[in-house]
Amino acid sequence: MVGPSNIKPYSCPFCSEGFNTANALGTHKRSCKNRAAAHAQSYSKRKAGAEELAEGSKRAKPDDEDIEENVQVPAPLAPSPPAHLSRSGRRIKVPIARWTDVQPSSMAGLPSQITNAFPARLPSPPPPPPPDVAPPSPVAASSSNEAVWELPQDQFGVFRRYPMPQLPRRDPEERLTAVELCAAVELAQEERPDPAEYPSIRWLARSVASELPKNPHEPFETVSSYVLCNWWYNSARTKSLQDLQKLATDLRTPGFSLDDLETFNARREMKRLDNYKKQTGIFSEAAGWHETTLHLPTPYPGEKFASEADTPQFPVKGLQFRRLLEVIIAEIQDPRFAEKRHWFPHERYWNPPSAPSSSDSTQAHPASPPPPPEPIRIVTDTFNTEEMLKVQEEIRNMPRDPDDASDVEYCAVPLLLYSDSTRLANFGSASLWPVYLYIGNISKYLRSTPSSFAAQHVAYIPKLPDDIQDFYEKQYGGAAPAETLRWLKCELMQKVWEHLLNDEEFKEAYRHGTLVECADGIIRRLFPRFCTYAADYPEKVLLAAMRHLAQCPCPRCLIKMKQIHEAGTRVDYQRRAHKREDTRPWQLTINRVRRWIFEGKNMASKPSAFSKFLTEHGKDFYELFTPDLMHEFELGVWKGIFNHLLRLLVAQGNGAVQRFNERYAQMSNMPTFGRGKIRKFWHNVSRQNQLAARDYEDFLQTIMPAFEGLLNKKNCDIVADLLFELANWHALAKLRLHTSVTLELFRAATDHMYAAVRKFTRTTCKDYITVELTRESEARGRRTAALRAKKAGGQAATAAPLRPEPKTVEFRVHHTYKYHCLADYPMSIELHGPTDNTTTQIGECEHIVVKIFYDRTNKNESEKQIAAHQKRRGLLHGISDALQRAEESADQGTRGPDAVEREVRDKGKGRANPDMEVSDSDSDEDQAPFPAMYARYTMGQSRRHRVDMYNWLADNDDDPACEVCNSIPASHRNHLEIRKDVLWEHKTLKLRYTTYDMRRDQDTINPRTHPDILLLTSQDDEDDFPFAYARVIRIFHADIRYTGPGSTSKAWQHTEFLWVRWFSRDPTDTQSGFRYRRLPRITFNSDPLFGFVDPACVLRAAYIIPAWRYGVTDELLPAHSVGRADSALDYDYNAYYVCMFVDRDMFMRFLGGGVGHHGVGVSVEASRNRGVRVERKHHMAAGATQPMSSAGEDAEREGSSERGEGGEENEDEDEDEDEDEDELDPEVRFMMDPDEDDALQWGDLYEFLPDTAEDDVEDDNDDHDSEIDIDEYAAIGYPEL
Questions:
Q1: Cα angle at 945 between 942 and 946, to 5 degrees?
Q2: How far apart are the first and last CA of the chain?
Q3: How far is the C-alpha of 18 from the C-alpha of 28, rounded, in Å?
Q4: CA 291 distance to own-chain centroid
Q5: Where does the C2H2-type domain lie (predicted)?
Q6: Which residues contact 31 (CB under 8 A, 6 or more apart)?
Q7: Does the pLDDT at position 882 exceed 90?
Q8: Angstrom distance (rounded) from CA 692 to CA 162
Q9: Could you give the 3-state DSSP secondary structure of residue 101?
Q10: Which of 3, 151, 860, 1115 is most deeply packed, by most CB within 10 A?
Q11: Average pLDDT, stretch 857-862?
Q12: Which of 712, 769, 718 is nearest to 1190 (CA)?
C-alpha cells in the first residue's frame, strides 16, 4: 500500500528491521551488526563468478595498462535498449545508436577545423560549404528578363534565390559568428575572431575623420570616470553578487586609478555626457532627442464653429521625440551590424532529405538514387517575406537617379514599429507611452534581444493632461464628457504621428531615397519603408482612428461583431475577403464626417496620420497592423477559455477545483524545463495571482494531464480535444521558422481549433450553469465600491469593498475580436514573417529598460529624464564598442594575423569529451573540457565522486535496480572489464543539438532534478513517433576494456555512460498523437527495467508529466530503491504523458519536417498527415485503464495504486459503452499489438471519405457531436482476425 500507513515503508536489507524515514534507515545501515557479514558473503559470491568467467574466456591479461586514444569500442557502448519483444510478447521500440547531427553551416570564426570539435566516436559531418556567393549563376528569368540568382545550398539543403539582375556586393551570412548561431548563449565561448577594420562611417553630406579619437573614452577625461559610469548604467536596479563581481572586474581595468577619483563628481560626469556632441552613429548630435508642444482642437457637444481652426486649442507639452530619418541613418551606420544586414530580400528554399538520416543505415548494394524532392519555401525573417519582395520589386522598377553611379545599390529599409503604454511603478499612476523602431534587415535573433541595442526609442507620447477638464470648464462652463475624452486621446495619437511623419527630409527619403555610406563602406540609396506596426487592440484602434469595439471591430476586414462567433466556417472566410481599404472615397467620407464634430454633432474620427502619408506611395495603412499573439491569444482567447474551464470545475463540484490545484501543486515540485520554458507553478493555480503571459503559456502546455478525469467522460473528452487543438495551434503560431508544409498544417489546425471551440460551446457549456470565480466577484465588488465612492464625491472612498454574490456567466470568448483574429495568422506569416517578428513581446521586453531608467529619476517630468538616461546609455555603449575595436586592432598589430588564426584553430580542436590520461588519484577539481558548441555532449572529468562497485552492490544487493547485467549481451559481458572495479559519478550532462531552425541549443540532464531523456528509434517504425524515453538514474564514466570478438585493442578505454530506467508505450494507449488529439502515454517498462545508454545517442531532454488520473503504484520497485531518480518519492505513477508542446523544437520533432533536424525522426512526408483528425473510439479493451472514481481520486491523493473511474455520476453515462467490456474487441486487440497479424496493415483501418457539405452557420441548439470540418475520416469495418 502506497502512502501513509502503519507499515514502516523502509526496511534494512541486512536485518529486515523497519523504519519510517529514509534518513533513519541510512543511520541504521551504517551501524547494522549484520552488514559486515552480508558484504563478505556478497563479495565472495561475486568474486567466484568473476573467476569463473575469467577461466571460461581463456585469455591472458594484457600488459598494456595505458589508455589508448581514439580506439573504436564496439557494440557494448551503444544504448542497451529493451529486447525487441517483452516477456509478454509485446514489441518494444529499439533506440538507434547513431544519426547524423548536422551542424549550422555558417562557420565564420571557426573555419575549417569544425570537424575536430566532434568526439572521435562520432561520424564526421560533411565539410563546410563554400561561401554562398561563389559561384552563383542565374537559373531562371523573370517576366522582365531579369535573372534570378540561385545560390548553392548549405548542409541542411537550404539555399537562397535572389530575383534581381546582380547579386548583392556583400553576403550578410558569410561572417556569422558562433554567438549568432546559438540559442543558448553559454554554448558560444568568447572567441577572438579576425579583427575587422571598419572604414569611416558618414552620411555623404557630412565629413568625419576616419580614425578613432585620441581619447577613446571621450567625453570622459579619465578611464576611471568612464569605468564607474559604464558600470552604473549597465547594472541592475537592485544590486546583486553579479553586479559586485562586475564592479571588482571593472576596477582592474588597465588605466583605472583611485587617484583619479579624488575629484570625481557624478553630476559633472553626467553633464559631460549630456553635452557631448557625437558626429555619427547612434545618438549623434542630429539623432538626439527633441522636445515640442502639440495643440489639440477641443470641440464640445452642441457648440458650433466655422472651421476646425476656430476651435480652442489645448496645448499638450512634453512630447519627447527623435527625427525618424536621423534615427535610421544612425542605426544604419552602427558598425556592430555592418556585415550582418540583408540589404536585398530573397526567397529561401529547402531541399528536404529524401530519406531519414542515419549514419548506421548502410547497404552493400545501394539502390538507384531517388529523384530529388521539390524545394520547399521557408520563411524565417522579414527579409525573406512576400511583403519585402514586393517592396524591393517596386524600388527596382523605379527610374534611377541620373547622378548616381552605376554601382550604387538601391535598397529598401524595412521599418518595424511598436508602441504601448506601460506602468512604471507598482503603486501610483506613473506611466510611459514609448514608440520603438526596429530595422528589419538584421536577424531577428539579434534585434529581439534588449542587450543588442537594436530598439531605437523614437518618441515618448505624452498623456492627456489632468487639467484638460479645467480647460473645458473655463472655455465651455462644463466638463468634457467621456466620449469627448476618448476622441481627444485618439486625436493626440494622430498629432504625434503627424509631427513625426511631416519631416520634409524623411518624406523626401521615403519618396526618392537618400544616399548613405553605410557602415560596411558601401554607398547605397536607401528607401525607408513601413512594414509592420505591432500593438495591442486598443492601440490599433487609436492608430487606425476607429471606434473601440465598433460594429466592425477588425482593423483588417469589415466583419461585423455579431458574425464573429462563426469564425472558421466557409462563410466566415468569404467575409474576411472583404478587406478594409484606404481608398480615396473612404478618405473623403471620413473628412466629411469629421466636419460634423465642429458643428456640434456626434464625435467622429479623423483620417489616420499613416493614411495621409502612405496614400501617395500606394500603401494601404491597414496592412501595417499585424496579429499580436501575446495579447490576442495567450492573454485573450486562451486566458478566457482557461477561466471558463475553472468555472466548469466549480460547477462540477465534488472537489474538482481542489484536485486540479493539488495536481499543479504536485507539478510545482516537478523539474522545470529549459531556460524559461516551463517554470515553477503556483500551488493555487485557480487563484491566478499576478500571472503573466508566459504563465498562461505554461498552463496551456501542461494542462491536459492536470484536467484529465475531472469532468464526466463525455465532456472530459470534448475538453481534451479542445485543449489539444489550442496547444497545437499555439505551437504552430510560435514557430520561428515556417515552411510551406507547416503553413498548410497551420491552416488546417486553425480550422480544427475553431471546430473544437464550436463543439465545446454547444455541448459542454450547455451542460453546466457557470458562475463567476471568487476573484472575479471580488474584483466586481471593488469596482462597484469605487464607482459609488466616485459618485459620492470621494466621501465613501475609504468604504470597504462589496462582496457580492457570484453571478451567472456564459462562455463568450467566441464572440470577441481576439477570437476572430486567429484565422489571420497564416496569411500574416506569409506576408510579414513568423510571429516573433511582429509580436508585442519584444516591445514588452524593451519596457524593462525604461522602467530601470524611471527608478533613477526624481519622478518629476520623468519622460524627459528617461530620454536623457537612454541617450547616456547609448553613448556609453558606443564608447565601449569603440574601445573594444581599438583593443582588437592593437592586438592584431602585436600578434599578427597568423597568431590570431592559430588561436582560433586551437580553440576549434577542443573536445567536449576528450580521451584523457587517467590517474589513480582522486582529484577535487573538475577538469573541464572545452565546451565546443559543435560537440554532441559535454561531461566533466572529475574523480571526486568515487563508486566502489562491490561495496555499492553489496549495500543494494536486494534492489532489483542493480540487476542490469542482462541488458548487456552475454557475448560482450563476459569480455568486459572495469579498471579497479571503480565508477566515477557526475552531477550533470549537457546535451547539444541542432534545432529545427538551424541553431545550436543545449539541455542539461541532472538525475536529481531533470532526469528524462529522448532517444531515436528505428526510422521505419509504424507508430506515430519514432522515439524512446528513459529516466537517467546516474551519470558515470569508467575505464573499461573489451577483449572479446571484434576487439581492436586491449588498452583501457575512457568510457562515459548513463544508467537509465526505461519507459515504454502504454499498451492501453492505442489512440494518441495528432490524429486522435492526445499526448503519447507511457509507463515504466517492466522488461527490462534498467539499462545503459551512450550519452552520444541521446537526442535531447524530455518533459514527462505524471498521468494523475491513473493513480500510483509501489509494485515496480521497493520503497528504498536506488532506481528512482527522486529519492523523496517511494512510489511511481501508473502512467505518464510526454509533453509534445514543451518548446518549439520538441513540437517540431513530433510534428516532423524540421529543417535543422535534417530528416532525423519524423520525415516531411509523414508530417503532411499531421493535419488529419480521426474521432476516438470510446470503448476500451479488457483490462484497460478506466476513468477514475471518487474512491480512486481519494486514492490518488493518498498515494493509492488502484485505478478507478472519473466520478460516481459518470457510471450511468458510460454503462452502455462498457456493457461488452469482458469481450475483447478484435480491433482493440490488433491496436494493442500491431505485429500480431501481418496480414493487416495500418492503412487498412481507415479510408478517405468524400468531404461532406457543412452549413455555413451551425445550429447552436444542436447538442449532437459534429463531424470535423476538413479531411474527415471515418472508421470502417475490420476483417476478422
A1: 110
A2: 40
A3: 10
A4: 39
A5: 10-44
A6: none
A7: no
A8: 42
A9: coil
A10: 151
A11: 85
A12: 712
